[in-house]
Amino acid sequence: MAKRKKTRKKNQRKKYSFSLILLSLLLFVLAISLYKAYQYLDLPPKKYSFSQKQKINTTSTNIKNTPQNNHLEYEEEVKNDFILKLKEVDLIIIQSLYTNHGQKVKITSHNYKDRYLDNISFKLQELSLYVSNPAKFISNLKKNIKNLTPFASIRKVGSQTYYLTIDNILTHIIYLEEYLPKTITQGKLVIVIDDMGRSVPLANKLLSLPLKLTFSFLPYAPHSREIATKTHLKNQGVMLHLPMEPKSYPQKANPGPGALFTFMDLMDIEQTCLQDLAKVPYVKGVNNHMGSSFTEYKPGMKKVFSILKRKNLFFLDSLTTPKSVTTLLAQQMGIKLLKRDIFLDNVQDEKSILFQLKKAEALALKKGTAIAIGHPYEETFKALQKWSQEKSPQVKTILVEELL
After folding, report:
1. DSSP secondary-structure letter at 248?
2. What would the CATH number be for the domain defined by 81-177?
3. Distance between CA atoms of 117 and 316, rounded to whole angstroms?
């Protein structure tokens, strides 16, 4: 009897051990499957541990002298299909303006309104143009649109008013002026060049232009201190291009060293911001590098603004998100705030950039002031060089701090 009990207990132990091993194997397989699924989905962590914060390293100086064609390594890039179509149509309009076969063409006014499509913001553009032969200009524009961008269409809605649509969504309103209006106002145009500090030769080219320019420097770019000093000695403007977390981080966009993140505690935000400011001499103000996520983060922006107020610096919002909290905070805290009007070189093409400069010029003449932001591309330099020779004498380029 006792022997039978021992045998039964031994068998039970074997069954229990086998079940335990089987359960362990199942749990191991399940864990591997979940890990593979997580890797496949590439989900961003919702909370960040101290070790993860250390990996991001907001103060590393290990930044290479990035070639110009790798500029988008640190840029937020919009790949929405509608936005890409919009850029194509903009290029068609530019082509029609510049291949006018001797016609006189001038942008007399440019306005825009914010519009949203599936949570993507775009600009509804209102362009007033003077052309010496309106019928010929519209005929060429219609032909180019039909042949090159079949998803777009243009129709007449008034005597000299045309609606241009993309996938039946209104994107451009074009007014053709019968007479070239005489501009009697004076316009002031601020031109900010972001992402400075990577290339000394290109900085020297930009500094040689007969224009007032403001350079905004990345804190850990290899030549920021050297170029900022030279910029100051040339009586041009110096700003800090403060890296901030974009919504597409970490999957698509990286703001680079010295960046501010929404997962940081306020002390880390303050320390990082102060370190960034110390990297660039002669700074008069700050604008955001990326930051579509961080500029929506009220506690973080409040901490940044408290530092700017102590140091008597202004903030220029590059407007990478329509939900930026800067306007509200600036009013509450008494911060000097400016906002970007036009990006010059979303399309890296000399004629396209020149077209954007002419839109900025028209906006400055209409509003009195305008702020345009570009980047240190060779195409941007060439467009600025050409524009400096043909710009309206009633438009004066000024430093950004002169608007305050």
Report:
1. T
2. 3.30.460
3. 26
Residues (pLDDT < 50) of the chain are: 3, 5, 35-75
Q: What is the pLDDT of residues 254-270, one digit of tens each?
A: 999 999 999 999 999 99
The answer to whether 243 touches 219, Cβ cutoff 8 Å, is: yes
What are the beta bridge partners of residue 242? 288
What is the enclosing helix (H) or strand (E) of 275? Answer: helix 266-279
Strand partners, 196: 217
Give the domain ranges of the chain.
Answer: 81-177, 187-403
Q: Which residues contact 287 (CB under 8 A, 6 or more apart)?
A: 192, 194, 216, 239, 240, 241, 242, 315, 316, 317, 318, 340, 373
Residue 269: count of CB within 10 angstroms of its CB: 23
> What whole-number distance in Å separates Cα of residue 236 and Cα of residue 196?
13
331-344 pLDDT per residue, tens? 999 999 999 999 99
Q: So what's the pLDDT on residue 118?
A: 78
HSE of 216, CA atoms in CB hemisphere, 13 A: 27
By the 10 Å C-beta count (0-12 exposed, 13-18 middle, 19+ buried), 127 is classed as buried
What are the strands, taking DSSP E only, across 152-311? 152-156, 161-166, 169-177, 187-196, 214-217, 237-244, 285-290
- Token representation of residue 96: 């029609």
Tokens linked to 193: 């060049």
Residues 6+ apart with CB under 8 A from 171: 86, 89, 122, 124, 125, 152, 164, 165
Q: What pLDDT is attached to residue 13? A: 56
> Which pLDDT belongs to residue 42?
37
CA dist., res. 274 & res. 6, Å (int): 74
> Hey, what amino acid is at 286?
V
pLDDT at 68: 39
Tokens coding 366: 């209409």
Round to whole Å and give the CA distance between 326 and 315: 9
CATH of domain 187-403: 3.20.20.370
Short-list 276, 201, 210, 187, CA closest to 239: 276
